[in-house]
Amino acid sequence: MMQLVFDKTEKGREEIATRRYQLPSRIRSILLLVDGKTTGEALLAKFATIGVTGEVLEELLAGEFIASHQGAVAETEAGAPPVSSPGLAPPAQPVATDLLQPGQTQYAAIYQFFSEAIKATLGLRGYALQLKVEKCGSIDDFRELRTPFLEAVLKSRDTETALGLRDRIDSLLNMKPAPEDAISTT
Question: Which domain holds residue 60?
Answer without folding.
Answer: 6-78
